[in-house]
Design goal:
The protein is built from 15 helices and no strands. The chain is elongated.
Length: about 400
């Protein structure tokens, strides 16, 4: 693999990190967001510093032959810890337990990084090796232990990730399960990377030459594993966001009938706050709910509990279930109140109570039911007709 093969995934990680940084700045205390950003940073760093041109440049800048080797190994070790911490925070649980488990992984892999640094300082690696450091120095004292330690640490992290993600995937459904299964596949590639590296190193220990496994097979396997794992981490988050956005847009549209019904109830028929075309679906939905509740407040003196009770009885008599009947009753009361408000432009109705106002106990879903009843219910249509005749 040449430098470009490393720098392209590094650039992809940097781009993803750039999109996450604004959210991190506003939500620094979010452990999941911090874990994601740490993972992207370390993943990009691993690809950047593992590229042969970077290895050569770092060795030249430091003046220490093979200084890049422990640097890359330490970054890989830190990346392994970041993956484990991300999964722990992503899965959630009691905050104290999550922090305790995350702290243990961080401290454990920090100790490995210290040991890698110490072993490199104790050993000797005078001959610069840009691509085959692992196999070239597989039999050198201290370098041998350094190579074995970083491979063991990476292997442990890969095994734990596969086990954790597999068990978790059996407990969940939807895009989260798909993402976890993809992560499992990605870490199976990482285990293959470890297997090829270890095979080449052990072959050196036994006097054989299988260096091509380490130099030609392992790097593309590692890149593929990182790419697949990244897709697994990102896919559930992206798809969940898209799903939430589509659900918010659907709720926003379904509230349209109710919003149009009550929007003229405010002072001088004020339609509410204008939203920019680029406003998020969630913000638009919340604003529409707010407009509806403002309309209910202005309609309060005109709500008639008698209308609601009568409409509820009619809906139940027509065979509607309890939930639908309540929505029809609220919608009928709203429709009648709107016409009563229109017939009283000077606002002479005073002293009425707001006890009869629709109560959206189930949040936007109740408002959606009322909006649907306004659009489809014959009971509501009849109350609207009667209220219009009474206003004449």
């Amino acid at each position: 693999m040449n430098g470009q093969d490393y720098y392209i995934p590094a650039a992809a990680m940097a781009t993803a990190l750039a999109f996450k940084l604004p959210a991190l700045r506003h939500n620094w205390r979010d452990p999941l967001l911090r874990s994601v950003c740490a993972l992207l940073t370390l993943a990009g760093s691993v690809f950047t510093f593992a590229a042969p041109p970077t290895i050569e440049a770092v060795n030249r800048w430091t003046g220490i032959p093979n200084f890049s080797a422990p640097l890359v190994y330490c970054l890989i070790t830190a990346f392994s810890a970041a993956c484990l911490v991300l999964i722990v925070n992503w899965r959630g649980g009691p905050p104290e337990q999550t922090r305790r488990v995350s702290r243990r992984w961080i401290l454990g892999y920090a100790a490995v990084i210290v040991m890698l640094t110490l072993l490199f300082s104790l050993g000797e690696a005078p001959q610069e090796r840009l691509r085959d450091f692992d196999t070239y120095y597989a039999g050198t004292p201290f370098m041998r232990e350094l190579i074995a330690l970083y491979l063991l640490a990476h292997n442990v992290a890969a095994f734990v990730m596969v086990a954790m993600c597999w068990r978790w995937s059996l407990q969940v459904r939807g895009w989260l399960r798909v993402g976890l299964m993809i992560i499992v596949v990605g870490y199976l590639f990482n285990l293959s990377y470890d297997a090829t590296k270890m095979t080449a190193v052990v072959a050196r220990w036994s006097g054989h030459d299988l260096d091509w496994l380490s130099t030609s097979v392992a790097p593309p396997v590692a890149s593929l594993g990182a790419l697949v794992s990244a897709v697994g981490f990102v896919l559930p988050l992206v798809c969940q966001r898209l799903s939430d956005s589509m659900r918010n847009w659907a709720t926003y549209r379904r509230l349209g009938t109710l919003w149009h019904e009550v929007r003229t109830a405010g002072p001088e028929g004020a339609p509410g706050v204008r939203m920019a075309w680029w406003s998020a679906a969630e913000l638009r939905m919340i604003q529409r709910e707010s407009d509806i509740h403002d309309g209910f407040l202005h309609l309060g003196p005109y709500f008639d509990q008698g209308h609601r009770d009568e409409a509820l009885s009619r809906a139940l008599a027509a065979g509607a279930d309890e939930e639908t009947a309540r929505a029809v009753a609220d919608a009928s009361m709203v429709a009648a109140a709107v016409r009563a408000r229109s017939a009283d432009p000077e606002g002479r109705v005073i002293g009425a109570s707001e006890e009869g106002a629709p109560q959206a106990a189930d949040g936007p879903r109740d408002l959606v039911r009322i909006s649907r009843a306004l659009r489809n219910s014959p009971v509501v249509a009849e109350f609207r007709r009667q209220a219009s005749l009474a206003a004449l």
